[in-house]
Design a protein that fits this description.
By secondary structure, the chain is α+β, with helices and mostly antiparallel strands. The protein contains 18 helices and twelve strands. The chain has a single domain, classed as Cytochrome p450 (Orthogonal Bundle), CATH 1.10.630.10. Helices cover about 45% and strands about 10% of the residues. The strands form four sheets. Strands 1-2-8-5-3 form a five-stranded mixed beta sheet. The protein has a three-stranded antiparallel beta sheet with strand order 4-12-9. The chain is globular, with a radius of gyration of 21 Å. It binds protoporphyrin IX containing FE (HEM). Protoporphyrin IX containing FE binds near residues 251, 255, 259, 355 and 367.
Length: about 400
């Protein structure tokens, strides 16, 4: 059974019917991995589609490792693995726990909330201009820039350097989409892995400089806090700091960039719910969770089996890739009543959009803050209507929306 690997499938829309069929008939299924674009064919992987199983895999790092083969479906170049494993995302406990204890304390509510006013004002200015024109392409004119600017503020990156951040995220995340990919070639003109550390030297150099600046002149931003962070006498090494910066730039940008138009699209598809939310903005906190459930910005994450395990009756061998589908777990009929209904008051709503277990998203509070400020402004506007077909990112990792024409 196939249909839930090819990034182009997701470019045409989340394959909900194929995922439902897998949940019902083959909840842990073998998927082949044919060549796509410049990427060669892979060995295949186990697709995990039910809520309970996705949670189990994410909460059992001893059996399903983030470090063995890192966390993307595509296998990294083996030569890059030791380097990638310095990123918290690609570590397993206990190393991951050690690092996490140092960085967690820097994401304080007070530090994050300090940016709420600026986030709101940015959203208000961009949305105000769009409404004044009567129509807009939401990602291009409003939501693509917003998370990047917010992240740059949080990190303490000067405004003049934001374009660099955008270039790096597009290089790393948009690589499956012909419109966003930057094909990187070696000296002989052969395509090389754009995520390879060798291709990211400019970004690591920048992170080093920024860290130096923050050591010399600390400010109330995340990078300053990270260079100073210390738990039980332990600090981040220079390499860990650079890797963490890299991770934040990627993890903190395209995810929110997906969540904002994804949430708007869900409201456009459900005009009654949208109207109700405009009339009663007090529903916003639970509405945000429901928008994240129906449109999880991250579609999948990969683990690698460390030993022989049996999952839902399937025998998984050591070294096998195991891919959890957050988007499928969030729509599992066994867990969510009427999962395809947008219920802005859904309670409980324990979606897995921010993951689960030891790697639970560190930026979830900042992501929710940005959604809260953006949607507060969006709901103040007259009711928007679709003004053409949306376009989606060609990716089996990020649930991206690249075009969403709206009119007022
Ligand atoms: C709606 C937006 C976001 C979504 C849906 C999201 C989703 C996720 C998910 C699913 C994971 C778990 C990865 C795994 O299981 O291997 C994760 C981890 C992480 N996220 Fe987010 N994220 C979002 C926004 C952010 C933001 C804004 C930041 C930073 C400012 C951030 C920083 C991180 C970091 C550092 C990790 C790694 C944690 C670890 O490995 O221990 N995320 N995120």
């Amino acid at each position: 059974m196939n249909g839930v690997f090819d990034p182009r499938t997701f470019g045409a829309g989340v394959p909900h019917e194929a995922l439902r069929l897998l949940r019902d008939t083959a909840p842990v299924s073998w998927q082949s991995e044919p060549a796509v674009g410049v990427w060669p064919a892979g060995p295949g992987f186990w697709a995990v589609t039910r809520y309970d199983d996705v949670r189990h895999v994410l909460r059992t790092p001893g059996d399903f490792s983030s470090a063995l083969g890192a966390t993307q479906i595509r296998d990294p170049d083996p030569a890059d693995l030791p380097f990638l494993r310095r990123m918290i995302l690609n570590m397993d406990p206990p190393e991951q726990v050690r690092l996490r204890r140092i960085v967690t304390g820097t994401f304080t509510r007070r530090r994050l909330e300090r940016f709420a006013g600026v986030v709101r004002e940015r959203a208000a200015v961009l949305l105000g201009a769009a409404v004044a024109r009567g129509r807009c392409d939401l990602p291009r004119e409003v939501t693509d820039d917003l998370p990047l600017q917010n992240l740059a503020d949080l990190l303490g990156v000067p405004a003049g350097d934001r374009a660099l951040l955008l270039r790096w995220t597009n290089r790393v995340i948009g690589y499956q989409d012909p419109e966003h990919a930057q094909v990187v070639t070696d000296a002989e003109g052969r395509p090389v892995n754009p995520r390879s550390p060798a291709q990211l030297a400019d970004m690591f150099g920048y992170a080093e400089e920024l860290a130096e600046r923050k050591r010399a002149e600390p400010a109330d931003d995340l990078m300053s806090a990270l260079v100073q962070a210390e738990v039980d006498g332990q600090r981040l090494t220079d390499a860990e700091l650079k890797m963490f910066f890299f991770l934040l730039v990627i993890a903190g940008n395209d995810t929110v960039r997906s969540a904002l138009p994804g949430g708007v699209l869900a409201l456009l598809d459900n005009p009654d719910a949208y109207r109700r939310l405009r009339a009663d903005p007090a529903l916003l906190p639970s509405a945000i969770e429901e928008l994240l459930r129906v449109h999880p910005p991250v579609l999948t994450f990969r683990r690698t089996a460390t030993r022989h395990v049996v999952l839902r009756g399937q025998r998984i061998a050591p070294g096998d890739k195991v891919v959890v589908y957050h988007v499928s777990a969030n729509h599992d009929e066994r867990h969510f009543p009427h999962p395809f209904r947008l219920d802005l008051t859904r309670d409980p709503n324990d979606h897995v959009s921010f993951g689960q277990g030891p790697h639970l998203c560190l930026g979830a509070a900042f992501a929710r803050l940005q959604m809260r400020e953006f949607f507060t402004e969006f709901l103040r506007l007259p009711q928007a209507e679709p003004d053409g077909e949306p376009r989606r990112l060609v990716s089996n990792f990020i649930n991206g929306i690249t075009s969403l024409p709206l009119r007022w």
